Model the fold of this input.
Amino acid sequence: MKNEEVTTKRVRVVGVLKAWMEDHFFDFAEPELQKDLSNFLESMQLTMQGSAKQLTRVFERGQERWVRCSSCVCYLGKV
Done:
């Protein structure tokens, strides 16, 4: 694959992940899934540092806004 094609595909994937985390962070409410996502974002630092930082900020904002209670996931609103 050409570098341009790879870059285009990576940008699209980052865009989808960003939108998913911003609009549906409750999908990531499980602590194990949050750990997996955090590990993935760390591994992105090697090849896509700027995108990894952007997604990490979105991830951190999501963690501040959503809290897992004993039986549900609660939205705290904008922090």
In short: The chain is about 65% helix and 10% strand. The radius of gyration is 14 Å.
